Amino acid sequence: MVKICCIGAGYVGGPTMAVIALKCPAVEVVVVDISVARITAWNSEQLPIYEPGLDDVVKQCRGRNLFFSTDIEKHIARADIIFVSVNTPTKTRGLGAGKAADLTYWENAARMIADVAKADKIVVEKSTVPVKTAEAIEKILIHNSRGVNFQILSNPEFLAEGTAIKDLFNPDRVLIGGRETPEGKKAVQALKQVYANWVPEDRIITTNLWSAELSKLAANAFLAQRISSVNAISALCEATGADVAEVAYAIGKDTRVGPRFLSASVGFGGSCFQKDILNLVYICECHGLPEVANYWKDVIKINDYQKSRFVNRVVSSMFNTVSEKKIAVLGFAFKKDTGDTRETPAIDVCKGLLGDKAKVCIYDPQVTEEQIQRDLALNKFDWDHPVHLQPMSATEVKPVAVTRDAYEATKGAHGVCILTEWDEFKKLDYVRIYESMQKPAFMFDGRNVVDPQKMREIGFIVYSIGKPLDSWLVDRPAVV
Length: 480
Ligand SMILES: NC(=O)c1ccc[n+]([C@@H]2O[C@H](COP(=O)([O-])OP(=O)(O)OC[C@H]3O[C@@H](n4cnc5c(N)ncnc54)[C@H](O)[C@@H]3O)[C@@H](O)[C@H]2O)c1
Ligand SMILES: O=c1ccn([C@@H]2O[C@H](COP(=O)(O)OP(=O)(O)O[C@H]3O[C@H](CO)[C@@H](O)[C@H](O)[C@H]3O)[C@@H](O)[C@H]2O)c(=O)[nH]1
Description:
- Helices cover 42% and strands 14% of the residues.
- The chain has 18 helices and 14 strands.
- The structure holds nicotinamide-adenine-dinucleotide and uridine-5'-diphosphate-glucose.
- One of its GO terms (biological process) is glycosaminoglycan biosynthetic process.
């Protein structure tokens, strides 16, 4: 029986290994982590992450050929194939601070593999890492190997949160990069065999190591660039009276462009886009390509601009101050169908509103009060470390209220901000919400979830990203 061990039981390691176990009954899969709490949760009824369809997959395989453990050394030693899916945060100090990836966790994992391996192993890079990391890891392994043969593969993951199981069941492609030596090719084939259990052969792409690593960063940069492009157009739409949804529909009908990833929003979030673009920027700078670096940096600049623009819109339309006003925030996760808040635009929007002394009251169907407090207290990039290593000081607790219900959050509020496109926000009783609010009642829709015309008929003053403005807003420009 082929034995797989995955180091890192997070958003990628957990779902990916659960699907491998489901689709490959002849493979034994053990997911290990340094976080005892995470492993305990994976072994319980309440999994540590919310992902549609995940519970079902885990229940089918756990205890059969899928196991979760903190005994990292034992399972590394037993495995034929080791996936590494640990955190790769942005460095906060030293060389490359604010851009380069901090490979501390990756390096620790590699050294542990070198220490405990007594037989040949295939080591698979699953984390998203700057190009040529595999080469560095290879050096650590080879120099500490004591005669064991390691083959390094890059197998970046393309799943999106909220649709992880769907994406893993039916991936657009699986990418495997490896060395072009006979041993390297053999290792690529071994990993290909695992995916071939359910992924059609023509969707499994093999490349050299560097192409695989760079493709992952470039794919995320291209996706994020589409959102910043449509968000840039949304600002122009507001200034000129066009409707960004109509413009995006017309653009997306061109088969060369395609319709997906053209929804204007308060900004993109998530653990990947910003971090991966910063990595790309750093690599370009290191290779003496400042023009290319600046090109990609602007994708992030537009994203920051979009968040600031939103906050300024709220403040300027509410008589230029939100001080002491209750502002309800509906949605805190970075997208629907996940409880993940990493780099969610809600953090910057809430911090902006709190900076203007608003009384912020937040409701999200999947995010806990503890998580929201943690997010509002953490410094930039601190979130991407194993949870038990993140700083958290009780003195930093922010004056926000968190409710378990959208009606409670909006009761008595002066304004409502929709920051995540949860389906349930489409179906709320907005007449009831309007009646319970202070007047004039403001609606700021950062995800174009509600029909602005219907909201106006109810009585709200409405702002929707990239849509023609209410006359009230036209006279109150939101300058960044
Ligand atoms: N989240 C996504 O949608 C996504 C998609 C594709 C790729 N990625 C990439 O995959 C990687 C992991 O992302 P994630 O979202 O799963 O992160 P995560 O924070 O959810 O999980 C990482 C896990 O690794 C564990 N860990 C860290 N060091 C360890 C060590 N030495 N030994 C054992 N466990 C260790 C942590 O405790 C944590 O549970 C990142 O490089 C990310 O960029 C993420
Ligand atoms: O038209 C769109 C599409 C997305 N978003 C926002 O963009 C962010 C990212 O969304 P999405 O890409 O769906 O989620 P992620 O889980 O961050 O997945 C991205 O990042 C992963 C980590 O690298 C990759 O594996 C995936 O392929 C890539 O889509 C979210 O805040 C979305 O709300 C928009 O604002 N408009």
